[in-house]
Amino acid sequence: MGECKERLAFAGLWIFLLSSLTGCANVSPVPESLRHQAKGQPLFTEIAANPAAFQGRIVILGGRIIETRLYEKRSIVLVSQRPLSPHDQPLATAESGGRILVKYEGRLDPAVYAPGKRIVVAGRVLPRPALHPGPTISMEAIRLCLWPREKKVIEEEQQKELAAYGSIDEYGPIEQYWNPIGWEPTVMGWGVGWW
């Protein structure tokens, strides 16, 4: 009888541990305050079709990094947009809806924000870039969140994206539409070893 109780207790402990781990894996890296401000946000295609209507609005978008460039006091990250899961994870197998030109006030390490990594950006919608090959949204980042690196970085996909839409240079002079609003964005990664 005592052995049966021990087995039940052991099984219950395993069920508790597994459910705890599953719950942790489904947590969004975006703070709840930003998720609340972005609640009910329009689709990527709606924003890309008329960015002026959504200018200044906080949205959460994500995808796969195509390129990261450093400028004197800021960084630009070009992202191939992907739909997000309910937990704000870019879906790796989904088709891209266009590009996200992310402006970050500060310097990001291009080795960390490397091509092929999945990223989620919470930020404010900015005016449409001067030149925009394909559907593009320009954002000023409040929070950047990298997802763990996949075992195989898709270099062919990056080359295809660059060939079809060009690099950051194709968006015209960055200074023409850089308009910082006055807050200091924060950066969050998943910690050393995740990428």
UniProtKB/TrEMBL annotation:
<dbReference type="InterPro" id="IPR004658">
    <property type="entry name" value="OMP_Slp"/>
</dbReference>
<dbReference type="Pfam" id="PF03843">
    <property type="entry name" value="Slp"/>
</dbReference>
<protein>
    <recommendedName>
        <fullName>Outer membrane protein slp</fullName>
    </recommendedName>
</protein>
<dbReference type="GO" id="GO:0019867">
    <property type="term" value="C:outer membrane"/>
</dbReference>
